[in-house]
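From the pipeline queue, job 12 of 40. The input is one protein chain; the requested action is below.

Action: predict structure.
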Amino acid sequence: MPEVKERARRMKAAIRERRGNPSISVNNGYRDFDMIHLTTEQLADRWQIRPKTLCNWRITGIGPKFLKIGQRVLYPMDIIEEFERNSIKSNTQQ
């Protein structure tokens, strides 16, 4: 499990370097925290699938939950990681 967290940390750092800083700082009056979001293209690259596949999954409701702000589609990192954890299978019968 530590290697998964380390890989996620490196990926977040790489995304920040490539695209500027996609973090949205939120101050809710109680604490400050960063919420990392991936675009459709970034998530498709992470999972090695076509962006069109994610689009089809959004239409059918089988992919991860997402934010839609205007025309922009974003996937919160915590939702992505939860979706990945829930997708782990030990055999093809599951």
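Job complete. The longest strand covers residues 72-76.
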